[in-house]
Design brief:
By secondary structure, the chain is of the alpha/beta class. The protein has 5 helices and 5 strands, in the order βαβαβαβαβα. It has a single domain (5-96), classed as Oxidized Rhodanese, domain 1. It has a 5-stranded parallel β-sheet. The longest helix is centred in the last third of the chain and has 12 residues, at 68-79. 34% of the residues are buried.
Length: 104
Amino acid sequence: MPTVQEVDIATFARARESGAPVLDVREDHEFSRAHVPGAQWIPLGELPARVAEVPAGTTVYVICASGNRSKRGAEILQESGRSAASVAGGTAGWIRAGHPAESG
């Protein structure tokens, strides 16, 4: 199985600015509290059945709270033939670094 690429917050921020897709795999209450603006939301437990909803042909940046679930999410995407990277530090790191977040 391919190793999941992990990227830091700064690398993720540059990719996002360039239009890279973002997939948040946290639970509903976590996502509604705060998430990266424009992130697609599919809870990790639903991802295997919903992979077709995730963009293909480009690297998808998978994010969770701190970086653990996003690794598994990136693995699921890679197993389905998609390119994915896990965001180390997750949404908490994104917010700590001073980047914007949305709620709802």
